Amino acid sequence: MRSRFLGGDFFLGGDFFRMRHWFGLTLVIMASFLPWGGTLLAQPGHEPAAHAVAGHAEHATEEGIPLYAKPIFSIGPLPVTNSMIITWVVALLLIGGAQVAMRKARLVPSGPQNFWEFIVEGLYNFLGGVLGHKLAAKTFWFFATLFILILATNWFGLIPGVGTIGWGHPDSHGVLHHISTPILRGANADLNMTLAMSMIFFVCWVVWALQANGPGGFIMHLFGPKGATTGLLKVLMVVVFIAAGLLEVVSILFRPVSLSFRLFGNIYAGENMLESMAAIVPSLSGIIPIPFYFMELMVGLVQALVFMLLTAVFTLLICSHGEDHHDAHGGKKGH
Q: Within a domain: residue 109?
């Protein structure tokens, strides 16, 4: 199927429809990974949500969004937090929307099909320019899923009611000033979610690196000396590149941490800022945050793009051997 966007040079055939299933499967994996770390940041002895209203007096002065997601209910021994609910809802909406849009795909797209093909084609061409078309075709399903899921959860967290409906602790006059346990919480304002996505990327990165280089090539890529040297200088360069390889290993192991904290910190800070703006003048709480909502819409888009680009560049650095990336930047043969 040929798309009419961007000059009509992008073809959507069987690979695209298989990509839809990868898209849905990856969303489910990411959404399901979150419960594994659902209590990563939970405080020991945290009270169940059902008892939040009758909580201890020391929580009455708690302000701002809690650093950790709070359990709302449990499925057996597994606590389901407010951020997990958002993740599942967004994943189901994206999967359902893609399936409905492409159920009766037409040669000339229109309506929802047109929208989804526009997104897919735009992302594919963008990643093709970054990674090269060969590597983009292999990894597109993952990076597109990352971008769409992060963007959707970021924006879904800005819907009124997310973080503002739930349980709290009233003051001595029975007035509730703060929601201590919201029913819904922004998914990426939970470190468990961002860490889960980073760890899934790390696993995929290792697999792609081994496929592109082989075990020996992977080790040589990290520790092997570069350049043509001989004699004593070659021995010295071997020692230098082994030391540089060890630093590179530390850098690689730290990537999931930096990726997860960057996304979490920006989204968590943004949600706290919105709550602070709403609390400045309670009588104007529905007006003052409006300009900041537009800023957070931009932040949500930028952070989704940054996360996707960083993971894509990390993959390019380990998988690219130069020729395909050169083709993506003007090295194609003329027709």
A: yes
- Angle (CA) 300-305-310 rounded to 5° is 130
Rounded Cα gap, residues 226 and 155, in angstroms: 45
Q: Does residue 303 come out as left (phi exceeding 0), alpha (psi in the -120 to 50 range) or beta? A: alpha
CB atoms within 10 A of CB 194: 27
In tens, the pLDDT along 214-252 reads: 888 888 888 777 766 666 777 787 788 788 888 888 989
Contact (Cβ atoms closer than 8 angstroms) between residue 186 and residue 154: yes
- DSSP letter, residue 43: P
Two tokens, residue 20: 């839809």
pLDDT (average), residues 72-88: 85
Rounded mean pLDDT, 159-164:
76
Residue 36's contacts (CB-CB under 8 Å, 6 or more residues apart) are 196
**Residue 225 phi, psi dihedral angles, 5° rounding:** -70, 140
The residues with which 11 forms a beta bridge, in sequence order, are: 2
Query: Does a structural domain hold residue 173?
Result: no
Cβ atoms of 256 and 198 within 8 Å: the answer is yes
278, pLDDT greater than 80: no
User: Does pTM surpass 0.85?
Assistant: no
What domain range includes position 89? 6-50+62-168+182-331
How many CA atoms, within 13 angstroms, populate the side-chain half-sphere of residue 34?
Answer: 28
The token pair that represents 272 in the structure block: 């706290």
Assess contact for 97 and 281: CB atoms under 8 A. Answer: no
Task: For residue 309, tell me if it sits in a domain.
Answer: yes
Assigned domain for 46 exists: yes
Report how far Cα 121 is from the mean position of its chain's Cα atoms: 20
- Alpha helices by DSSP H, listed for the chain, are 14-33, 82-101, 111-131, 133-156, 191-223, 231-280, 290-319, 323-326
Nearest one of 313, 22, 259 to 144, comparing CA atoms: 22
pLDDT in tens, 178-200: 677 777 888 888 888 899 899 99
Number of domains in the chain: 1
